[in-house]
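Data deposition worksheet. Section B asks for the primary sequence of the deposited chain exactly as it was used as input, without tags or linkers unless they were present during the calculation. Section C holds the resulting structure in token form. Section D is free text for depositor observations; keep each observation to a single sentence. Incomplete worksheets are returned to the depositor.
Section A, Depositor: J.P.
Section B:
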Amino acid sequence: MSLDPAPLVQTAGLTKSFGSRHDLFGRPRLLVRAVDDVSLSIARGETLGLVGESGCGKSTLGNLLIRLEDADNGEVVFDGQRLTDLNERELRRLRRRFQIIFQDPQSSLDPRMTVRAIVAEPLTVAGWSDRAKIAERVAFVLETVGLGREQMSRFPHEFSGGQRQRIAIARALTINPDFLVLDEPTSALDVSVQAQVLNLLKELQERFSLTYLFISHNMAVIRYMSDRIAVMYLGRTLEVAPSASLFAAPRHPYTRTLLQAIPSVVRREPAGWELPIIEGDPPSQTSPPPGCHFHPRCPLRMPECSVTQPALAQVGLDHSAACLLYRVAPQE
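Section C:
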């Protein structure tokens, strides 16, 4: 795919915590830092894959990018406009340019609404009033995702999981967005259905020049879908690289362990080989370790790692990693 180098979405120092600072008795309470000083960019027409363990902050970051949640600090810039500066009215006007598709279509679709009403809802919110034009648009997007217009009067429970996700995709496409946050869009589906939905998303991206943030914990899916990949751990980005570079030469120890743990039916493992695991338990999100958050579990940790929190640094062509290995002993 030919990418426009100008970023459509940018973040700088994005931070989000959950929980109140004090309990009912005024005592201090520990906060969960879900997103911790994240800066990244997504080019027009690009798919940025966001990968990491459950609870690392992937979904929260996706919500922050389209202001489903407000950040505590930092900024989000969408096509040159700071979303963090917009009031509710200004934000509503811009919202038609970005949409989100959630993990579970069963819970993201109103069971009391017909497919016609579900897919037409964004148009109604956007101010469309001509019923004929609304019906025509709904039929078009349903056919675009592989569903027929004869199914518009049916309810979500009458469809399979894959078909329900197609309905959710159709709803997101109704008002011609530029940017989609795809939050684990296939993890609730059977493997064969996953492949169909992933191929559909690729076709739609090519046809409508869409930009994606694709969130997943599945490295194989991330590799198939992404132009670039950002790896998250405990709210921070540890590595960002083109997909081919990250899989061929991962730089951060956490990324290396993630890739080594992918089962393969092609490679022949040596006798006695065991699936690699990351030593230790994940640290508490309310009190992350000082320095590099990953250092208690890192096989390559150094004394400096427990006191210094590394920032993303260039380690190759369009390849960045947040690791002191590349400050102490730079690698070619």
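Section D:
The first strand starts at residue 4 and ends at 18.
The radius of gyration is 21 Å.
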